[in-house]
Amino acid sequence: AVVSTQSTGSEGEGLGNAFLSHIGGCDAIFSMMRVFDDPDVTHVDGEVDPLRDTETIFQELRLKDIEYLTNNIEKVGKVVARMGDKDKVAKNEYETMLKARDLLKDGKDVRKCTWSNKEIEALNKHLLLTSKPVIYLINMGEKDYIKKKGKWLLKIKKYLDENDPGATMIPFSGALEQRLLDDPDNAKTFLEENKTQSNLDKIIVQGFKALGLEYFFTVGADEVRAWTIQKHTKAPQAAGKIHSDMERGFIKAEVYKYEDIVEHKSEAAVKAAGRYRMEGKNYEVQDGDILMIKFNVTDAKKK
After folding, report:
1. What pTM was estimated for this model as a whole?
2. Of 47, 80, 103, 124, whose Cβ has the fewest other Cβ atoms within 10 Å?
3. Alpha-carbon distances of 261 from 123, 164, 288, 292, rounded to whole Å
């Protein structure tokens, strides 16, 4: 999660080079927007302003991307100058990086811009900070969160609609989440009495979606296991997450949904309802699938 907001204006070092390098190693960003007032939790700029903070953060990311691209444009430019049109890959990469740098200088994040398939292929080599998916976490005071009101919520929604249309925005309260963790025995009673709920599950689910991840389940007599896969994973590769032999000798997968077992209560009832099906090698496993893998592996004959 990106939480620091100290800015140095133009050098791209307000977040610290080490911190920015950590972001570079991530596949998605939780951008934490503080909207609560608390005299015991001081703000680096003296007062709470989540819109200013967000602008500061992403300006720092843009500056770091500009610095990175400038260095790489020089390197790839030498190849293009030497090879000309003979190296079409290098030329495409060079032109794409020039376009990206110009857009960044105009204050536009890479992920918000329109790119051709060839340009995307070039950009994927560089994993720019502003190309990463972002989820905005709105950290509210406990009372405002319970009341579902706050002076910043509508302002943030309007800001995101204008600057990052379609972005995921999740209000939550760090103070409330800490209360629930500190007193788990009374957490359920507190939530019921205040007619509220934790939003941690939603944050986790949306984080998984941003990373392009999903779960499937396997069910045994005494154990249920959840397995993490990339979205669009085919059944044999999903089976390989369990054991390589299952992928190598994959025959078919017996499939039903988590929602099916919740609704019908037993596997037999799921089958009777026609919700139990067979899928082959080209089936893309869906989030919440329950799989029974059929496979057969025979050892190669010894010579």
Report:
1. 0.81
2. 47
3. 43, 38, 11, 14
